[in-house]
Design brief:
globular; 14 helices; homodimer; 7-stranded mixed β-sheet; 495 residues; 4-stranded antiparallel β-sheet; alpha/beta
Chain lengths: 495, 495
């Protein structure tokens, strides 16, 4: 224990000189920040997409302690470029091709600004009626754009509905926990002598070997075994392997209860076959959750909607408008077929959260999610859907897919390289026709060079590079630039 | 299934007219939004704190579908007052006295604006070095302001460190899951034949009967029994009941492994006795998590720091700067004593998230939290700590506590009323000296009246009203106003 005596003086409050920003100053600083945002985003291609700093760089740039007295905004503002920007990974740079995109747009930023101003914590309907109801409506709007089955819509007066989660990881976890609660209840009803632990030891969840790490992590949190099933040579989970595994597991006395399928895997953007595995899940009372975090956005275009064929078999479905639908992070859209099964897993009703209208026409979203509090995130979704219109959003998706095919063609033209998986959307998986080590060296050269940024992945022990079209501002010339950098560095590697 | 044919036309992208907002327009709209925010917050006392709408009001005000073509910002902007504001619960109104405060300030809003602009998803160090490192530094700054034990600081080169979670619920859950993983590992090491389920059936977690519902909910998610222990007549969990319960549970063959203590409960702002229960937890290898969501902020004032006496016994500690430290939601500060025990519960390392610097000098925060992605929330904390300075933040806390005592004095002066619990910080629990029903009627009258907003709670079957000082702008005259409304409505009730 130690004492920072400077903070601990007992001053009468009247003696304290505060330099808090007042509303008059905020009008000015807010405008300056708006201009800073525009200047940053308009000129982002001049910054290296991945910064050249080493761990620990930042603490050398700032004091070890917070100031006792307030500082002027001028002092603070100038540290944005001095302290923060040197260590920023610029996800919106047109030379950033790592992971998957994170969306960003001016209407979404306006939505978050308004959300911050209102700062209602919408855990119940009463704590923010507009916060709850706009979300209900926006999730119905999105469901219609995606042509989701009617049973996912709140307005259909059934048991379905949508919610904005923070991330796809949380959506997967909520689905798994709901399925777990449900299966434990069912098994207990038939076998009242079994303890929760005894039932838990029998539960088995499934996902494909190519699904995101957050699925396996949901299993860890839910404390259930997660079996990763092999995929076919296009990375798709198919009926044969699923049926065989279920039969084997049932023979062992295990209870299959949950399957997380992926539409657009992180490694290669592959697609599990929902039309095949959906009916099997339904037949065995296995909760089918569909994670379309990245690819879901593309399904607003009619030419890609087929990717969701079979979605009618799912108990829950999720995709991230914050990836590819111009909504700034965080906005992960999740629909559930039976909201009673979800809220049944989480519902707590202390007196201080009760209100007259609960359980009536509108949901209390706190029962559908892991956190209690929640921001007014539907504002940014509303602003984006209205400002772009569906056609404007489709246009962005199509542009990015075209750019991916442009990159694919460049790779295919070069006999030193190969394409790893069919290119369907905005991701191209490619590699040198050489050893894993050679590809690892190439990746390292690319990222050490700092002109573009990529991340790798590995499938069935084959290491490859991922080229994702990420920024809204990425143009054909940026794709050409990226390929020229890769060719130059490949050349230096081979020499 | 249905088809919205209007969205589904296959138009070549060149035919689509988009009205997306460009940077030139955003400079204007951003300034307008800044001015709207100021006008909203400066004039918020003219709005009813709790809106007078019924569930379902909003869907009547907007179309059933998203537009195909983009709309102009003028169209969208005018709907903020028409659609959203009628249904907003104004948490920042000086007449809002429900729940606990949600902080809001201009420097914090600027921080969120910048975070949105950068929109890096900082799940690993590499995906946003500044995002990770500013958070490490800000959590150390905060730890020093609160005089936390050194073992919670990252800069001390031990195993400790801080992280910004979204909510206190998530912090409690992360603590419980870490404790669960740890105890299962330990028990399995000694009893390799026990299954996870068999161990789980023996685990028992504790909390007090006055702790927040999210603690019990963490038990549901973690699938462990949660025993709620009785408190003394000041609402405090004490040594005798804890020792007795542990002994009884151990005799039953149960394994106590986790205790969530509260500093500032939601119902009455009572305080568990950390100095008493901490050593008992340590002795029995029980993970002590301390939830100070509301009261933690007050501990930046030396006169309230005693509330955290005994915190050195905790394995993890959490409070919400987004409640009472001028940081706009969400910003929940959590410290852990041994980060290996936390990341050990969650760590997954797929190739696409690996980077050269992992496991080195700086954390990959994805291993410390439930979601994968994360916003750049430390920016708003940095701006607030620097703009207000510690003394400016202390001043706000002291003002609110003074206002609570002002309200307390008014209640005590009226023989029809009684104070339910000692007033320590910004919450006053009070009731009519009458039946629960009479108090319920009074609450209903107050909230139906719409001039002020309160929520109730219930302890040991006694229903009471909670008066929380919430808004930064609340002044002595607002407290007087609230009391006059309560007196007027009491009078009409008694007549």
């Amino acid at each position: 224990m130690y004492m920072f005596s400077s903070y601990m003086k007992l001053l009468p409050s009247s003696c304290i000189l505060s330099t808090n920003m007042d509303s008059k100053e905020f009008r000015i600083r807010g405008q300056e920040m708006v201009n800073y945002i525009v200047d940053y985003l308009e000129n982002i291609r001049e910054r290296m997409p991945m910064p050249n700093v080493v761990p620990g760089f930042l603490k050398e740039l700032i004091p070890d302690e917070a100031p006792l007295e307030g500082e002027s905004w001028q002092e603070i503002q100038k540290d944005i470029e001095r302290v923060i920007m040197p260590g920023v990974t610029h996800w919106n740079s047109p030379h950033f091709h790592a992971y998957f995109p994170t969306a960003n747009s001016y209407p979404a930023i306006l939505g978050d600004m308004l959300s911050d101003a209102i700062s209602c914590i919408g855990f119940t309907w009463a704590s923010g009626p507009s916060c709850t109801e706009l979300e209900v409506s926006m999730m119905d709007w999105l469901a219609k754009i995606l042509q989701l089955p009617k049973h996912f819509l709140f307005s259909e007066q059934g048991k379905g509905g949508g919610i904005i989660q923070g991330t796809a990881s949380e959506a997967t976890l909520v689905a798994l926990l709901s399925a777990r609660t449900n299966v434990i209840k069912t098994v207990k009803a038939d076998n009242p002598d079994l303890t929760t632990g005894q039932i838990l030891d029998k539960l088995i969840a499934y996902t494909s070997e190519e699904s995101h790490s957050s699925v396996e992590r949901a299993g860890l949190i839910g404390l259930v075994q997660m079996r990763t099933l092999p995929t076919d040579d296009r990375g798709s989970l198919r009926i044969d392997i699923l049926e065989e595994t279920i039969a084997q597991d049932q023979q062992k006395g295990l209870i299959p209860f949950f399957l997380c399928a992926t539409i657009g895997t992180t490694s290669t953007c592959s697609f599990d076959n929902l039309s095949e595995i959906g009916p099997i899940c339904n037949h065995h009372d296995i909760w089918l959750h569909v994670d379309a975090a990245y690819a879901g956005s593309a399904c607003i275009c009619p030419e890609f909607r087929y990717l969701l064929d079979g979605i009618e078999h799912a108990m829950s479905f999720n995709f991230n408008p914050h990836k590819w639908l111009q909504v700034t992070f965080d906005c992960s859209a999740m629909w559930i077929k039976d909201r009673d099964l979800v809220s049944g897993a989480f519902e707590m009703n202390p007196v201080y959260l009760k209100h007259e209208n609960q359980g009536h026409a509108m949901p209390d979203y706190r029962h559908w999610q892991i956190p209690l509090g929640r921001r007014f995130r539907s504002l940014k979704l509303w602003f984006v859907l209205r400002s772009y219109g569906v056609s404007g959003l489709q246009k962005q998706i199509r542009k990015d897919v075209q750019l991916a095919h442009q990159f694919e063609a460049l790779v295919r033209d070069d006999p030193k390289f190969e394409i790893v998986r069919e290119v369907t959307l905005g991701l191209v998986c490619f590699r040198l026709k050489a050893s894993n080590e050679a590809n690892e060296m190439l990746l390292k050269k690319i990222n050490d060079d700092h002109r573009i940024h990529l991340v790798p992945s590995k499938i069935k022990d084959k290491f490859f590079l991922r080229f994702a079209v990420c920024a809204t501002s990425t143009q054909p010339s940026d794709v050409g630039f990226a390929w020229s950098v890769i060719q130059e560095l490949t050349h230096s590697l081979i020499q």
